[in-house]
Fold this sequence. Notes:
The complex is a heterodimer.
Chain A: H1 2-10, H2 15-35, H3 39-62, H4 66-69, H5 93-114, H6 132-144, H7 190-195, E1 243-244, H8 245-252, E2 258-263, H9 268-279, H10 283-286, E3 289-296, H11 300-307, H12 314-322, H13 334-347, E4 356-361, H14 372-380, H15 382-395, E5 401-406, H16 407-410, H17 414-426, H18 442-449, E6 455-460, E7 481-484, H19 495-500, H20 511-514, E8 517-520, E9 528-530, H21 534-537, H22 541-554, E10 564-566
Helix pairs in contact in A: 1-2, 1-3, 9-13, 15-18
Chain B: H1 11-19, E1 25-26, H2 27-37, H3 46-58, E2 62-65, H4 72-77, E3 80-83, H5 85-107
Helix pairs in contact in B: 1-2
Amino acid sequence: MSEKMFTRLFRLYPSRFRKQYGDEALQLIRDRLRDETGFFKRARLVWDLLADVLTGLPQAYRNSYAVMEQAPAPGNAEGIPSFRVLDSEPLGRGSILIGGTLSLGTIAAFGFLLSRPIAYITLPGSNGRVSPIESVIERLNRGMTPDSTGGGDEPAAKSTSASERQPHSWPTAAAGPSKPDDEQNQLVSIQALQALPENTKRDNFGTSGNVPANGLIANIPSASHAWNPVTGHDQSLQQPRVQNASSALIRLFHRYDVVMFGEAHDSEQEYRWLCALVKTPGFSDQVDDIVVEFGNGLYQKTVDRYVAGEDIPFTEVQGAWRNMVGNVLPVSPEYGWLYKAVREANMEHPGKRGIRLVMGGPPVDWDKIKSSADLAPYEREREQWYVQVVKTEVLAKHHHALLIMGAGHFLRGQQEALQFERAAERHHNLPRLDRIKLSPGYVEREIRATGANPYLVVFGTNAIDNHGDVDERFDSLPAPVLVPLSGNWVGALPAQPVISGGHAPAIPVTLADQADALLYVGPCSVLRTLYLSPADLDGTAYGQEMTRRDIIALGHPVTFPYGAVPQCVRPEQSLR
Amino acid sequence: MPKRKLDPLPAAAFQIMLALSDGELHGYAIMREVEEQSGGRLRLGPGTLYGSIQALLEGKLIEEVDRPGDTEERRERRRYYRLTAAGRKRTRSEAEKMADVLRVARARKILRGDYV
């Protein structure tokens, strides 16, 4: 039986191979049949023959058989394309039929597979990294299921850049929550805006969902009448899938190399959560680096030694965050908490490669800064410096990193949002809403340009306008939570007041437009911003130095706030 | 440009050359020798065996030899092969490469127990 089977299988080999080795190969089979008796040995022989076809056939076709036959050299000159006949015998009808049927079947199966959505599955052993092909599949699937809020326990993956989405259009108050279908409804009524009395802007994002009749703010869908311009669906009733913030953020690293966290500077509750996060079991297994804006590059070596547990005086490492560029007020003590938390987390696992704090701030030597001209290059190139550090210290090393920077540096479409906000304040030259093109910020753009696939989390509150109104639905969220923003009422909220804690007004840009997920650590009523105490500043060398720096940067000294102040109700505090 | 079928040297081709290092053998004997020297892990089927032999012949690493006393009919069915000088040199070179890898593996304590 095996001899017959082999004879048939042998027909698959090129004729010159058969001619050359047919008898000898058949003899080999006979030898084996003679020597290998019994059920198991015969079964093994059959298996060997089948496996041999798969492995030996390519080799048989690659050989030229020129040595034995001394075939004449082809007439074509080197480099000129030509066809070479691999087999001197014509193909039999059976071979053509089988080959043709298999080819058609393969093409049909491939076409069928292409037309099906492919479930995203992290490949075993891929360490959570997403290949370009996986990234494309993920993006295609998102395109097919726009209402998907993500699977399993993870926040919904949503890496599609804002620039790839459809231009936004919003329902007017008159049109209600339905999808606008004419150009008129897609325009902001400038006249209505200009006629809008100041006191009518207050309740436009009230939880009742009643939309006032006229005006810019009225054109923004309320939380309970949210029409998502991306999906085109009314999502007013959809609840977000919320998850414990720490474990959800750690799980993000199964799928993303880089998680960008847009922070609210100086928020006490936010930093308490960050400190707890770095000590959470599993964080150091997933994350190699934390790149911080509040870290002066000059101090990298000192910080490396400090977080590794070496005996470094705290005052020596303190300069890393106190001497950063970009802060007007004395730096909050919270930043020191995070440095200390990373050191403690690393010391809990001696001998293990710990978390590295990477200084993302420019390496400025403040002793050499005497004028605004000295400072300007550092101020101007903060984001460029940060990006460069991420590229060299994280991406080039194929690390996983948590990037922390002020939310304004990370939010998608932030420049456009601020531009619109300024235009709205002046009540003239309003851009058409459908012309607002939201693009990723510089940092995200540069990271994506390297092929990395970042996920953007932003800190947020329950404030939904700049007049103290809050959305009570946040009370049902078990803070601290990470809320994926795609396809739910949180994502449909106006981004600017939520992120700024009510310091910025509502404009027609949603949270889902600007980020992938929201970190919610508690309501405005409990959030506090923490500053240094009078003892740390009044008459101290650091206090005097901060005054000197403010005069250089702003031309005048700044009155320092002290201690803990409410985060949401004093817009004048949002100076950075 | 001709395909470089033997660079890097496939495992089957190396095993065949190793089997021929003790002298000339015919196809079935090569198969048995390879099976023995690989501890039963590698059994070359006819396609792989003769495909590799053909590649080695084309690469002039082995050559076919006539066995005195063989009848014409027997020679037709049983061809004997042996290493050429170039083939022996190449076999030694490949073995040395493997020895280098083995040294590194030992130094890094990848190999334990019986392998050390």
